[in-house]
Amino acid sequence: MPSSPGRARGPARLVRSVDDFARVRHGDVLVCRSTDPAWTPLFRLAAAVVTETGGILSHAAIVAREYGIPAVVGAARALDRLTDDAPVVVDGTLGIVEQDE
Question: Which residues are catalytic?
Fold first, then answer.
């Protein structure tokens, strides 16, 4: 589901818990199950956000719009389908996430 407009590319950074926060670098595409207020500092670093759950009013969608970065939420099995550090393109206007060639 498209949740915050724009288009961005960067390496997918699969984050499964707060223990993975230190792995996120500037320009990464944050890929996770969901976010909550503890995850907000990552939005300063991320080029885009992809979550497996949520909707237009989810934490990830709202904070991504506040930070002006693209977001796609409700991307089922994104953590299984994307590879950590592989380049991806996120289109938050159309709701598309694809591996970059």
Answer: 59
